[in-house]
Sequence to fold (166 residues):
Amino acid sequence: MILISSGPFEEKYAADIENIRMNRLSAGERIEVDSLYQKLNNDEITNTADVFQRFGELFSKADAYNPMKDNSDEINYDFNIYNSVWNEAAKMRKSGSLLKIGKQIKCPVVAMHGDYDPHPSKGVQKPLSKMLNDFRFILIENCGHKPWLEKQAKDKFYKILKMEII
Fold:
């Protein structure tokens, strides 16, 4: 199993993700993110797709070290699906059940993670190395949350991925 840019598996590692992202944005972008949060939490807003897409664009910018063009315009943004899946995943992480499920994994696991990813690498490496018998962690330098889009990391990412698959 190969994990790429995974979120943290324990709640204590997730606390600073939003602060890291917000600090990487300009003052104007931070104000815009706050406005987008308000819109997404407003029941009167019917077209959340555009709002959610812009939110994703801003956080993708904050998540990236030195990105190439992202084709996110080809993505169908659905806030309702995201919200239902994310709420469940957050509850599982908070309760510890997310890690408990991992104990059922019997195959080798490799996690690749960028050193600039706002999701802390320790939140992946430490919990999984304690829980999994066959686990390796690879930290990629000059790399954000989407290594396949990073100018300095893309080639290394694909080289590692190819070696792991073969």
Notes: The CA atoms of residues 89 and 98 lie 8 Å apart. The longest helix spans residues 79-95. The chain has one domain: 2-165.
